[in-house]
Amino acid sequence: MACDQAMYDKTLSNTFIILLALTCYTSVLVVLALVYPTTQIINIQLKGFEYQNHQRRDVEDFEKEIQSIFSPEKCKEDEKMRLITSGYDKRTEEITSYIDCHCSKRNKCVPNTLGRISVNMNVTTMDEVFKESFTKILNPGGWYVPKQCKTSSVAIVIPYRNRESQLSIFLRHYHPIFIRQKLHYRIFVIDQVDKDPFNRGKLMNVGYNEAKKYFPYDCVVFHDVDLLLEDDRLMYSCQSSPQHLSVSLDKYNYRLLYQELFGGIEMFTRDHFELINGFSNSFWGWGAEDDNLYRRLAWKGLTLWRPSVHRARYKMIKHDNAEVDAKSDRFDIRKESYKHFATDGLSSLKYEVKETILHPTHTHVKVDLHMAKDDLFGIVNYEKPK
Ligand SMILES: *[C@@H]1O[C@H](CO)[C@@H](O)[C@H](O)[C@H]1NC(C)=O
């Protein structure tokens, strides 16, 4: 019995131990099940902190590195060197202002454009335009550099003769746009004062050449005076390809007239414009210099880029005095001109600046193009084909 009792007790205690062990095991499991996810979370969080700290350290290192590369002093020295090597030994106010702004700010300008804008075609005078509020932030000669951020520079070149009412409307319309686009820009009005037929292409070349004296602009926009932009999101700053900006005009129901059309507004980087030797100087009288320009792109393997017709929309100012010179000599000058890109252009440009006036809204260059002294296609004693 005692033995039985003992056996019973033993069995009982064994059962008890087993039960206890099971309970313990289960508890451990339960506790583990409860604790494990928490530890996992803690673990993940710890890793996260580590990661964040690591990242923060990376960012700090990176910023320090940038700071050392981007010391304003080093930047100013570099920019000065760049300008000097491109021929700017004397420092114009525009250059000084550009270097200071460019080098003291790291962030790129963000345009604050409006989208579709209304076009004010109401008649105005130059004196009224000079009193507009935007003239307060312009510098004499009609240039502007945004103070708070880095931006690209662009020269706007307008071929001009006796269109003051159109020019006034143009300046009133475009200055606020360029300021909103946060461009470093300057407007050059190239005024043909001689009595020879109007020569749009040669005036553009003169404008390019004169603009270079003020600043090595990244970009040049050759702009007819009678075209007013309807959407300010169309940026006047260069992409890699030459661009045709005046894609859709109200006059033509906002459609591109033909695929080769390259008139109205043309935009080039300096390098591309130099590469194609600029415009032809040989088109006296209205028209066809743009077809020549179009062919020059193919000559150097450049592709023309056009923005969408929805954005590159323009209204054309009605011509009050339809003074259009008929071309006197229509021997195949257009076709013939395609053979002489290399001699006819920037390389053969001859002109005389009569006067340069720095107006509050633009740099007015009065120029004599000296038609009589020009060699056709830049070739001395060029003989017209029979
Ligand atoms: C244009 O002139 C008209 C008539 O004088 C005037 O009612 C209108 O407000 C002007 N438009 C703008 C944009 O100034």
Automatic annotation (TrEMBL):
It is found in: Membrane. Its main location: membrane. Signal peptide: none annotated. It is an enzyme of class 2 (transferase). Pfam families: Glyco_transf_7C, Glyco_transf_7N. Residues 244-320 form the Galactosyltransferase C-terminal domain. Residues 109-239 form the Galactosyltransferase N-terminal domain. It comes from the Eukaryota. The chain crosses the membrane at residues 12-36. Keywords: Glycoprotein, Glycosyltransferase, Membrane, Signal-anchor, Transferase, Transmembrane, Transmembrane helix. It is a single-pass type II membrane protein. Its EC number is 2.4.1.-. One of its GO terms (cellular component) is membrane. Pathway: Protein modification; protein glycosylation. One of its GO terms (molecular function) is galactosyltransferase activity. GO terms for biological process: carbohydrate metabolic process. Belongs to the glycosyltransferase 7 family. Catalyses the transfer of galactose onto proteins or lipids. This is Beta-1,4-galactosyltransferase.
